[in-house]
Amino acid sequence: MSTASTRPPEGRYGRSSDARADRTLKVTGAVLGALLLALIGYFGYHYVGQNKISGELITFQVADDSVRVHLEVRKDAGASGYCTVRSQAEDGDEVGRADFRFSGPDTRIDQVVTLRTTSRGTTAELLGCHAD
């Protein structure tokens, strides 16, 4: 005795519906992947390529009612903008925050600024720099 085959004869009924679904899923996945890569590239370009001013906090010195902050700012020639600095107390409360403006033809500015605080701060943090 032999057993009957449960598969239909090949070529008789065309492509199976699973093969069509697999192809559709592959095409859809490729299109969505390409769109995601394009979106990441767009946001990356505008974040990195269009940022005309950036800064770095080099060091800081704490006093009872202020914090002296040494900032290094890099920007495009002629661009103007500001950097936001904040200080926190030992318990984590914010005791000072200020924006410091930078403009002019220089592309690199090394400057010490004073951030006034409501009580003794223990930290200085550069929150970010933004072009006008």
From TrEMBL:
InterPro entries: DUF4307 (IPR025443). Keywords: Membrane, Transmembrane, Transmembrane helix. It comes from the Bacteria. The chain crosses the membrane at residues 25-45. This is DUF4307 domain-containing protein. It comes from Streptomyces phaeoluteigriseus.
